[in-house]
Amino acid sequence: MLKKKSSTLFTILRHTTPSVPKKHSPLTFSSHSNNPFLHTSSPPPPFSPKGHSFHNPTWFYSFGYLTLDGRRLCSKSAEIVKERSSRCWNCHESTAAAAPFLVCDSCRCIQPVDDSIDYFEIFGLEKKYDIEGGVNLEGKYKDWQKKLHPDLVHSKSQKERDFAAEQSARVIDAYRTLSKPLSRAIYMMKLDGLEVDEEQTISDPELLAEIMEIREAVEEATESESLKQILSRMEENLRSWSNTFATAFQSRNFEEAKDSIRRMTYYSRVIDEVVKKL
Question: Where is the J domain (predicted)?
Fold first, then answer.
């Protein structure tokens, strides 16, 4: 009986084992390179659960390790964290849902940061990629910063002032993340339990040719008008791939979504370089 069960488990693992993708060209992008466009490095690790949905309770077998869908494993603990952090640390009363991490309604003590609250919840936004139409994100950000301003908490205890500083830092990070298409795309993937390697090799010949072309154009540009033309072109490319990401993410095509993010990374870095040179 034991031998039969072991054989069955081996068969399941064998049929659920993903194939190892081929290595790509060693050309990749890196923010740590002296050259903002090109960098040569070793290719990424050969294994990724390509083609497998992270929303299904699928087992993956890789290099002798078994890995479960992390979101399923963490869902219960996340609920526990949420329940625990919904009570005031000082008076132990339940905090209001309308102000999930600011102050206790009962004793008015400033609360610690609740990491189970995502960036969209902080600003009262629907959890979706396209937030750029009619959403006053900057206004919501300023409102939070006013509430967390040091002048308003200077009479509080040191513990509460520390909580306020941590909350303020998280609001800043949330605003910076959601205000840009690239960082917002990466964050959306993260919320779905998917990590994105922005430095992974891109082997598209057309893109590689474009990299060389734009690199030379930026280096040779001496007039602001030429740089502005490059900037306009890169912003248009960024918008195009941002739309591609939105479509891919909506249809749960995560491989295409990841590829869109890597291309958005390149165009974003070019935009940053052009802005610095203007």
Answer: 118-191
Closest CA to 135 of 148, 146, 149, 120: 120
Per residue in 132-146, pLDDT (tens digit) is 766 789 999 999 888
**The dihedral of CA 34, 39, 45, 51: what is its sign?**
positive
Yes or no: say if 263 and 256 are a contact pair by the CB < 8 Å rule: no
Nearest-angstrom CA–CA distance, 76 and 82: 10
Report the alpha-carbon angle 76-79-81, nearest 5. Answer: 110
Please check whether the domain covering 200-278 is classified as CATH 1.20.1280.20.
yes
- Fold assignment, 72-179: Helix Hairpins (1.10.287)
- Residue 175 three-state SS: helix
* pTM of this structure: 0.66
CB neighbours (10 Å) of residue 184?
22
